[in-house]
């Protein structure tokens, strides 16, 4: 159960070295910023960590987490996502959103027809893609998260208005 006032800022990719360091993937625009958002929480909120970045490593950052002193403890955390309290994060400009805020939103087309709900947000390097699962749909609908295709995101109403190109429907 994710906490509504927390945003996913990173994940633990596994142990690094033998002294309890972890390899950290940061989802922050400036990867090192993740250290300033501590304490970071596990998704279910059962554990929290302060962290100290140690050095850049392949595919992420080396870090020491509070309470993690051995390679075995670090290995046990592989795949754990790290969540920061929203008030610690910078507020975003009007046209930017935290991925966590988009997941679960209802997506409708410009005529009000429900296309489905956002299941995930992907980024393969060319911009964000919304993965939408909907009724009567064999596979997910993948929409580029651009102003042209997704003109309206209304977080208060919990809905997104999309104008998908004809070939995507």
Main attributes of the structure:
169 residues; mainly beta; Elongation Factor Tu (Ef-tu), domain 3; 2 domains; five-stranded antiparallel β-sheet; elongated
Characterise this structure.
With 169 residues, the protein is mainly beta. The chain folds into two domains: 6-87, RimM (Elongation Factor Tu (Ef-tu), domain 3, Beta Barrel); 99-163, SH3 type barrels, CATH 2.30.30. The protein has helices at residues 71-76, 99-102, and strands spanning 6-16, 21-26, 40-41, 48-49, 51-57, 60-65, 81-85, 106-109, 114-123, 128-133, 141-144, 152-154, 159-162. It contains two helices and 13 strands; from the N terminus they run ββββββαβαββββββ. The longest helix has 6 residues, at 71-76. It has a six-stranded mixed sheet with strand order 11-10-9-8-13-12, with no helix packed on it. It is 6% helix and 41% strand. The protein is elongated and about 55 Å long.
Ordered list of secondary-structure elements with their pairings:
Blueprint: E1 6-16, E2 21-26, E3 40-41, E4 48-49, E5 51-57, E6 60-65, H1 71-76, E7 81-85, H2 99-102, E8 106-109, E9 114-123, E10 128-133, E11 141-144, E12 152-154, E13 159-162
Parallel strand pairs: 8-13
Antiparallel strand pairs: 1-2, 1-7, 2-6, 3-4, 5-6, 8-9, 9-10, 10-11, 12-13
User: Helical content, roughly?
Assistant: under 10%
Rounded average pLDDT: 87
Order of helices and strands: EEEEEEHEHEEEEEE
CATH topology of the largest domain: Elongation Factor Tu (Ef-tu), domain 3
Structural class: mainly beta
